[in-house]
Amino acid sequence: MDFQQEFITTIHDLGADLESLEQRLMTLSETYPMALLIPSLYEELERPALTRIKQHLKECRYIQDINVCLYADTADQYRHAVQFFSDLPQRVRVIWTNGPRVRSLLEMLAEKNLNLLDYKGKGWAVWLGLGLSSLNARAIALHDADIVTFDRSLVAKLFYPVVEQEFGIAYNKAYYTRLSLDDRSMNGRVVRLFVAPLLATLRDVIGHSAYLRYLRSYRYPLAGEFAMTSDLAMNLRVPCDWGLEVGLLAEVYRNVAPKRVSQVDLGFFDHKHKDVGNNPKEGLQKMCTEILASILRTLTETESVVISDAHQVAMRVKFRRVAQDLIRQYFVDATCNGIPYDRHREEITIEGFEQAIPVAFNSYLHEPATSRIPDWTRALAVVPDLREQLLTIVETDMAEARLEAVVQSSASDSPADPSPAMA
Fold first, then answer.
1. d(CA 148, CA 48)
2. Is-contact 347 193, C-beta < 8 A?
């Protein structure tokens, strides 16, 4: 542990007292309401991680609102989700992100020449959640639904730098150590074996860039856990691909001075893992492709950097060498800590990730416009009460789900009709 700082403020875990921190958050919540946003697929309700998360959130009473952005295939799944979260003490709203009422709202927007019908995935869920959360909250935090190491300190550490006004922080992002719960092996392959060598390679190939310096300051740039002010949330164009986290960092870079950005240490962290994939259209290789394409577009958008095919050739040569040097360093670090480390498998992984480079360049050169949902300020210019309409939809969906649950419960509790007496 050290006190090293980056281009952005780094908040280390030096053993702060959690109860004191939560007491301070309770005081701050009186004038600075907080909302927590959890994007989730329905399948997460059937896994143990979300049950653990829910139990810890019961202790986070400084949070006024919890908004769950749920992708559910059926009304029964949505109804189950509403029931699942019903025992939380906070005000909980479950947004059925692909439900018929939300769809109708989008169709209304499309008629007004704001077409959001084609957006989907986690980015879409985040956009909806930010809009709803910003109605009442002044600070919004987000975390995923699959964190198997979750405890309530995570939420407190995300919120506190944003709501403590003398800090002046508008955006706070998590970083952590990714170790497997099963065998303590190193996880976080995309960050370790693609993003880290990629950013070092881009620095060497392209030269100095304020944006690259900014990205390299994040110790875990793909962390899906962060907090922000509601003012910032209203001005973010949310990406709708696997480059979501990097794309959001680009939006923060556009809207916030680096002195108002921080990152916080959340300790050890683990969640479910994706396959590497066999080509750049699958698994983590697809993620790498969209991350690099996002970075290239942002370099042009914010730094006016002109990217050419010559950069691609130089990057492919340089990337392999930088990644292999990192593997050697990871091996030393892991061995000294008694952590299992398969150098051969790591080499195979970077070879797969390297295949993302030409595909990402092709996407950048032939599709320079990125896929991002217009920010909420634009949406409200089209329909000023859009958030209120969304709130009404969510409350109607939830009321309908609760009523149906009561009807089903009453039906199951009713005694069966007696059989006619035998003559």
1. 8
2. no
Q: What's the pTM?
A: 0.93
- Residue pLDDT, tens place only, 268-293: 888 777 788 888 888 999 999 999 99
Q: Is residue 415 part of a domain?
A: no
Half-sphere exposure of 189 (CA within 13 A, CB side): 26
Q: How far is CA 136 from the centre of its chain?
A: 21
Domain of 53?
9-406
Residue 421 has pLDDT above 60, yes or no: no
pLDDT tens digits for 299-348?
Answer: 999 999 988 889 999 999 999 999 999 999 999 999 999 999 999 999 99
Tracing tokens 């050290």 back to the chain, one arrives at 2
**Alpha-carbon gap, residue 2 to 17, rounded angstroms:** 19
* 365 assigned to some structural domain: yes
Return the ∠ at Cα 381 (arms to 377 and 387), rounded to 5°: 65
Nearest to 128 by CA among 112, 151, 109: 109
**What residues contact residue 231 under an 8 Å CB cut-off, 6+ apart?**
170
SS3 label, residue 349: helix
Residue whose token pair is 């403020």: 9
Is residue 413 included in any domain, yes or no?
A: no
The residue written with tokens 């794309």 in the block is: 247
Distance CA 123, CA 69 (A): 11
